[in-house]
């Protein structure tokens, strides 16, 4: 029982990473209706920018805020320059664009900052949290930030005009234009916000997984999985999904014999798929009724 | 009366297919005009062309200002509210959010709040359901919501695409009564597209009949309704 | 009335490609065939080997095209089917001394069964969900191939070495050239089979599902059957490509068949034109040669160069090589008129 509780706790701690990334995934999915495979790389690049700022002597929180702003603008710029021209192209062509963006960012980061792993500071410290060896204060801080972020997003989408406009543009674009919403800019805004949230995820994850150009590969996959499990349309679902995936992964590694580190990912994914087969819209997703 | 909307030689295309072949008509300020025609005549396309939702050529002037080459969302900001065919409800949002979206381009928050109350007075059923997901409303209720959403813009001109479609006759009467009232009391000019000619002619003061992308008949709504020959040959009743 | 009341037309995920437009005209086909037949006589062995790989990847892209372009289902798991085909051939040849040519149909059947079974749970999923499920398959496959209790057969992390076959009947040609012609025959046979499949009743059923699943089932198409069938056929063709790949490369190892391969095949399909079968070979050329070109332009930034080149291609021709072919056709038509 002790082992079980501990593994669940550890799962929640890693789950916070996935939850954070899943939030960014849901954000962009809401705005553009597909998954952005380059999102992890964007987050990684943002994290490197913050690291660079700190190297130049800027204190942590200033670098944090500056990176947030830069990532927001960067996300918008990527949409305006690279993806707006593809707005009328087929979906699969857009997916190819995400893969191209992935390659560009990954390779550029490698050239600028090289592939050696770097230490990344945490503002929360890394002492055991409340005496538990399994959760450090950093991980507790990460969970706290994720929850705050979730509350902030909830407020933004429910109670601000621009949040309402973004939701409308994502759900029925044509009607949104007919009430005067510039849907094209809403998409850009969605990219900006997703990029900013991704940068928060990156900066929180970096102390745990260390900073290097390939740091987000695995995290993004779990982030996708968490978002899909939670139902893609629900930021709340994404966060819950993140924690569940973290716990799943840990328990599978502990209790299923023969599962090494390598098989953890496929097993977690298989579990999620089983859930989806039973509940195709995810745990908290709206079921969209299809009619002819 | 001054002309509010003036459409000249409008041609519209879906890819290579031409759907409107040089259509001209006008609408005076404060009027309630109906555009009649059979299925596929080009009524929806006409409304879509006014809002630049389909590729078109020709002149469209609103209050003397040309609308061509403006984006749909900026045309809306001129005060043109379009209730599209099929209503365009934001089905996953609440009734009240749908109304707020109608006013999303406005800045006067107090005015918006009082307008929402005004809509609830026009359509009491919406008040009862204001926290409900709009997609769960019945067809008639969704049509009411669509009209209310359009009115939240405080439009000068409202375009309605077959508001009676799929509604029970009693509901249609109710809706048309409210449209008449809005036209008279709130001074909103209305262009309503209909297949249901009889009802539309009762409501409107001016009418155009459209056939395969051309205007074939226009005149005072009462005159057309009273002229059996026209009714038989163009409107089929 | 009420049925028509809420008409929601969903845009299909894959744009409709008319049936005729999925293939090449007879004249063009013969021209391409002649070029493919003559080419090896004039070039070095290494180039012949690359041409063989081009055909093999072309076949794998074609398989994805049948699935996505034909039935509208998306897969990031093609590398798994490719791996199963490759390992089937390697194990049969090296442990059981089965003739290489015989291993191809066996690999096809094994992969068909695998794909058909995988298609069952996939039935409930679509779009991003299916992408995730197939992605899981792709990431799991190399790990499964490394499992301890399979090591006796698979060779574990080390993999297996495959013997390259000599030309039969004492034909005077190099191993590479023989393998090229052998591959060419297999690829052409499967291409013709695929074209006919898509023109057949089943093909029409696939496309009806692609364009509108609900309408297709209303028309009496057994949606579940045909969707899993599409998975099975696609997996079988991919498996044969994997077999040929194992023979050509003379080696199978778990890490040759990662998600990177599946993503490459996907890019090949997009570049070639989704749903346009002849485009598969163009797409294959892209995924084989463009990374090399990128490396040539800049070693340190090869990934970025590749990404930029990919962006250029999708800006210029968002519908892939198919778009070029259509433009070419229109141009030829104009010339003829003048
Ligand atoms: N999206 C479209 N693509 C191609 N043709 C269309 C499209 N929408 C309408 N049309 C054609 O344009 C013509 C006019 O259609 P529409 O304006 O919808 O008619 P109405 O609203 O009067 O029933 C019809 O012949 C119709 O087939
Ligand atoms: Mg219509």
Q: Which labels suit this protein?
A:
heterotrimer, B: 237 residues, alpha/beta, 6-stranded mixed beta sheet, 4-stranded antiparallel beta sheet, 10 strands, C: 338 residues, mainly alpha, 1% strand, globular, disordered N terminus, binds adenosine-5'-diphosphate
Describe the structure.
By secondary structure, chain A is mostly helical. Chain A is 74% helix and 2% strand. Chain A has helices at 2-32, 39-55, 60-83, 91-113, 137-159, 161-171, 173-178, 183-209, 216-230, 235-255, 261-278; strands spanning 128-129, 132-136. Chain B is α/β, with parallel strands linked by helices. Chain B has one domain: Rossmann fold (3-Layer(aba) Sandwich), CATH 3.40.50.300. The longest helix of chain B has 17 residues, at 169-185. The radius of gyration of chain B is 17 Å and the shape is globular. With 338 residues, chain C is mainly α. Chain C has a domain at 23-258. In chain C, strands 1-2 form a two-stranded antiparallel sheet. Chain C starts with a helix and ends with a helix. Chains in contact: A-B, A-C, B-C. Residues 43-44, 85, 162 of chain B line the site of magnesium ion.
In short:
Chain B has ten helices and ten strands.
The overall average pLDDT of chain A, rounded, is 86
Q: Note the beta-strand portion of chain A.
A: under 5%
End-to-end Cα distance of chain A: 51 Å
Read across the widest sheet of chain C, the strand sequence of neighbours is 1-2
Approximate helicity band of chain A: over 70%
What small-molecule ligands were found? adenosine-5'-diphosphate, magnesium ion
Tally of individual domains of chain A? 1
Average pLDDT of chain C, rounded to a whole number, is: 83
Shape of chain C: globular
């Amino acid at each position: 029982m002790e082992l079980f509780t501990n593994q669940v706790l550890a799962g929640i701690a890693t789950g916070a990473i996935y939850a954070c990334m899943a939030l960014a995934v849901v954000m962009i999915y809401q705005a553009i209706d597909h998954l952005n495979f380059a999102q992890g790389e964007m987050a990684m690049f943002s994290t490197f920018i913050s690291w660079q700022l700190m190297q130049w002597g800027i204190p942590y929180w200033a670098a944090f805020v500056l990176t947030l702003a830069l990532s927001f603008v960067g996300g918008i710029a990527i949409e305006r320059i690279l993806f707006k021209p593809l707005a009328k192209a087929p979906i699969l062509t857009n997916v190819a664009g995400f893969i191209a963006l992935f390659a560009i960012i990954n390779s550029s980061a490698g050239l600028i900052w090289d592939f050696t792993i770097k230490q990344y500071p945490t503002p929360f410290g890394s002492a055991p949290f409340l005496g538990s060896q399994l959760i450090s204060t950093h991980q507790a801080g990460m969970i706290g930030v994720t929850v705050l972020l979730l509350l902030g997003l909830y407020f933004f989408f429910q109670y601000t005009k621009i949040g309402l406009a973004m939701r409308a543009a994502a759900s029925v674009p044509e009607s949104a234009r007919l009430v005067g919403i510039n849907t094209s800019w809403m998409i850009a805004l969605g990219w900006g916000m997703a990029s900013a949230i991704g940068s928060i995820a990156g900066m929180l994850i970096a102390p745990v997984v260390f900073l290097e150009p390939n740091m987000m590969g695995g995290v993004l996959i779990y982030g996708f999985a968490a978002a899909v499990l939670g139902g893609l349309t629900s930021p709340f679902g994404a966060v819950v999904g993140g924690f569940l995936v973290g716990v799943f992964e840990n328990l599978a590694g502990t209790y299923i014999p023969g599962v090494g580190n390598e098989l953890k990912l496929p097993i977690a994914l298989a579990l999620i798929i089983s859930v989806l087969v039973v509940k195709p819209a995810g745990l908290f997703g709206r079921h969209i009724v299809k009619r002819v | 009366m001054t002309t509010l909307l003036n459409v000249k030689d409008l041609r519209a295309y879906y890819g290579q297919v031409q759907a409107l072949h040089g259509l001209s008509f006008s609408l005076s300020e404060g009027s309630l005009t109906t555009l009649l025609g059979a299925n596929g005549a080009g009524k929806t396309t006409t409304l879509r062309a006014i809002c630049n939702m389909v590729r078109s050529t020709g002149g469209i002037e609103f209050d003397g200002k040309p609308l061509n080459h403006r984006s749909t969302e900026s045309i809306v900001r001129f005060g043109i509210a379009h209730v599209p065919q099929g209503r365009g409800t934001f089905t996953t949002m609440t009734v009240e959010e749908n109304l707020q979206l109608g006013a999303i381009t406005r800045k006067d928050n107090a005015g918006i709040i009082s307008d929402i109350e005004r809509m609830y007075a026009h359509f009491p059923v919406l008040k009862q359901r204001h926290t409900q997901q709009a997609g769960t409303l019945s067809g008639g209720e969704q049509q009411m919501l669509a009209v209310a959403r359009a009115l939240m813009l405080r439009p000068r001109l409202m375009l309605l695409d077959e508001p009676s479609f799929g509604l029970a006759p009693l509901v249609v009467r109710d809706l048309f009564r409210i449209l008449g009232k809005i036209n008279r009391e709130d001074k909103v000019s209305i262009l309503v597209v209909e297949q249901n000619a009889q009802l539309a002619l009762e409501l409107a003061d001016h009418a155009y009949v459209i056939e395969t992308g051309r205007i074939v008949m226009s005149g005072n709504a009462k005159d057309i309704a009273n002229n059996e020959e026209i009714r038989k040959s163009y409107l089929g009743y | 009335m009420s049925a028509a009341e809420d008409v929601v037309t969903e845009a299909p995920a894959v744009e409709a490609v008319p049936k005729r437009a999925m293939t090449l005209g007879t004249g063009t086909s013969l021209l391409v065939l002649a070029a493919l037949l003559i080419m090896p006589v004039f070039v070095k062995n290494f180039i012949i080997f690359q041409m063989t790989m081009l055909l093999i990847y072309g076949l794998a892209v074609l398989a994805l095209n049948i699935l996505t372009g034909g039935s509208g289902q998306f897969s990031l798991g093609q590398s798994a089917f490719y791996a199963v085909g490759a390992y089937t051939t390697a194990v049969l040849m090296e442990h059981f001394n089965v003739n290489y040519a015989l291993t191809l149909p066996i690999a096809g059947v094994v992969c068909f069964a695998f794909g058909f079974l995988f298609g069952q749970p996939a039935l409930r999923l679509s779009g991003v969900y299916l992408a995730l499920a197939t992605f899981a398959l792709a990431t799991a496959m190399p790990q499964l191939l490394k499992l301890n209790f399979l090591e006796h057969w698979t060779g574990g992390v080390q993999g297996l070495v495959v013997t390259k076959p000599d030309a039969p009947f004492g034909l005077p040609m190099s191993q590479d050239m023989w393998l090229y012609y052998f591959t060419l025959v297999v690829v052409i046979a499967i291409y013709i089979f695929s074209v006919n499949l898509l023109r057949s009743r089943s093909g029409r059923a696939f496309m009806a599902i692609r364009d509108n699943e609900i309408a297709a089932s209303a028309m009496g198409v057994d949606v579940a059957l045909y969707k899993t069938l599409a998975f099975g056929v696609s997996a079988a063709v991919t498996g044969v490509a994997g077999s040929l790949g194992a023979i050509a490369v003379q080696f199978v190892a778990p890490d040759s068949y990662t998600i990177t391969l599946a993503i490459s095949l996907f890019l090949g399909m997009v570049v070639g034109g989704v749903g346009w079968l002849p485009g598969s070979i163009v797409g294959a050329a892209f995924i084989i040669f463009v990374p090399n070109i990128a490396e040539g332009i800049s070693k340190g930034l090869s990934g970025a160069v590749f990404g930029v080149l990919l962006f250029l291609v999708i800006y210029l021709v968002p519908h892939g090589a198919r778009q070029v072919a259509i433009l070419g056709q229109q141009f030829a038509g104009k010339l003829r008129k003048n």
